[in-house]
């Protein structure tokens, strides 16, 4: 499993990550980001890397 980290201090809740991995990231009705999963399976590494690169705020990382 790969741990997914979001720095909510950086996040501006633009929704890019939620569009790409909706089972992991979700924008709530109040406009805030909620992380639905703290880990993803190893076989989703490429998807996670894409989300990390696409986050315009550099708020997502893995460990
Ligand atoms: S893509 Fe980045 S800035 Fe946008 S909602 Fe996701 S974590 Fe926040």
UniProtKB/TrEMBL annotation:
<keyword id="KW-0003">3Fe-4S</keyword>
<keyword id="KW-0411">Iron-sulfur</keyword>
<dbReference type="Pfam" id="PF13370">
    <property type="entry name" value="Fer4_13"/>
</dbReference>
<keyword id="KW-0408">Iron</keyword>
<dbReference type="InterPro" id="IPR051269">
    <property type="entry name" value="Fe-S_cluster_ET"/>
</dbReference>
<keyword id="KW-0813">Transport</keyword>
<keyword id="KW-0249">Electron transport</keyword>
<protein>
    <submittedName>
        <fullName>Ferredoxin</fullName>
    </submittedName>
</protein>
<keyword id="KW-0479">Metal-binding</keyword>
């Amino acid at each position: 499993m790969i741990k997914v980290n979001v720095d909510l201090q950086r996040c501006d809740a633009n929704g890019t990550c939620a569009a790409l991995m909706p089972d992991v990231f979700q924008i709530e009705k109040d406009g805030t980001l909620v992380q639905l999963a703290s880990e993803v399976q190893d076989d989703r590494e490429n998807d996670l890397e894409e989300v990390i690169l696409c986050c315009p705020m550099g708020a997502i990382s893995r460990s």
